[in-house]
Each structure stands twice: as C-alpha cells, then as structure tokens.
Design goal:
Layout lengths: L18 H12 L4 H11 L6 H29 L4 H5 L4 H7 L24 H25 L3 H29 L4 H12 L1
Helix pairs in contact: 1-3, 1-6, 2-3, 2-6, 3-7, 6-7
C-alpha cells in the first residue's frame, strides 16, 4: 500500500526551545482539527467509498496525514527538549509537564484530550467528502492562527508547509466530490431534490 521512509516528509530543525509555543502547535497533533483526527477520518471513510479512485485518494491523504502527525510531534518535541525546571515553571506548559513530562500526547491547545468524536465517518460518499472539505479548511484556519501568534522562522517554515498541504487536500477532495456526485443515479438525485425543494 505504501512505503515508510524513516525521515520526515518535511524537515524540522528548531534550535530554540519554547514551551509556550509548543502548546499552540500541539493542537494540530490532537486538537479538534488536527492531524490525528484527519488521518483516522480518511483511513476510516475509505471503506465506504463507491469507487476505487476515491478509496485511493482517501488512503493517500490519510497516510500523508500520518506523516504530518510526525512533523507536528517533531516540532513539539524540539520546542520542549532540554527545558530547565525554571523554564517549565515560568511557562503555560507547566500543567502539561506535570501529566506528561515532555512526552507527546494528543490534546488541543486548551488542554482538551483527543476524542474520536473529533471526526466523522458517515458511510455516505457525498457526506464524507463534504465533511472532508470542511475539515481541511478548519485545519488550514488553525495553521493560520498558529502563524499569527508564532514568529520563530524555524517553527513557521514547517507550519507553512503543512498549511499548503491542507489547501492541496481541499482541492483534491473537491475534485473527488464533483466526480463522485456525478455518478449518483438520476432517480436518487431527483428524489433528493424533491424532498429538499418540493
């Protein structure tokens, strides 16, 4: 299905620790619009897709989201490695540290743990592909928010890369939605229009 290479999809080289910034970034690991939810969403939805092209697309993007999860984890790790007790105590990272030390744990920036309710898998191709369009835009918005508050160029560089990939995924899901929607039998489409619009 795919080949794992033991290197990040995009390099992360952060030299200055910043535990406060790590909490912002952590939201894209296990937050409501993060990479963990995205990978599970797409890899779950692929089974109910009506054509092989959509199944392949969801597999491709789902596994790429796993690579993005690695990038986000690497950013958080590099922002929190070698912290002194004083740096931890004087940062907003201190409560996280008490529970997880500097381990990577899926949560939102506000501290809410990851939950499978963060993503949908409805079993209807059009519903799921439309859900994915919204998910990619929400992830892009979160990366935009991170870029508004993070100024370190070593952090911003991989974040910009991840943001760009959200845009590409949005475009791919739009193409798939148009393609899959065109294959709906006329009778079903006609009945749906009657139910919705009378």
């Amino acid at each position: 299905m795919w080949r794992y290479e033991k290197r990040l999809q995009y390099p992360v080289n952060i030299t200055t620790p910043n535990p406060d910034m790590a909490l912002f970034i952590l939201s894209q690991y296990g937050g409501p619009d993060g990479e963990m939810g995205a990978s599970l969403r797409y890899l779950s939805q692929r089974y109910s897709m009506t054509n092989k092209e959509c199944q392949g697309l969801l597999t491709d993007i789902g596994t790429e989201e796993l690579a993005h999860l690695e990038i986000v984890a690497a950013i958080v790790h590099q922002l929190t490695r070698n912290l002194t007790p004083e740096e931890i105590k004087s940062s907003s990272f201190a409560p996280y540290y008490i529970d997880h030390t500097t381990g990577i744990w899926p949560q939102a920036a506000g501290g809410i743990p990851f939950n499978a309710c963060e993503f949908q898998s409805k079993g209807d191709p059009i519903t799921d592909l439309t859900e994915n369009l919204a998910a990619e835009q929400k992830a892009r918005s979160t990366y935009d928010n991170i870029l508004r508050v993070v100024t370190d160029p070593e952090v911003c560089d991989p974040i910009r890369y991840l943001r760009e990939r959200e845009i590409v995924h949005f475009q791919r899901f739009g193409e798939a939605n148009r393609e899959d929607g065109s294959k709906i039998p006329y009778e079903i489409e006609h009945i749906t229009c009657l139910l919705l619009f009378g």
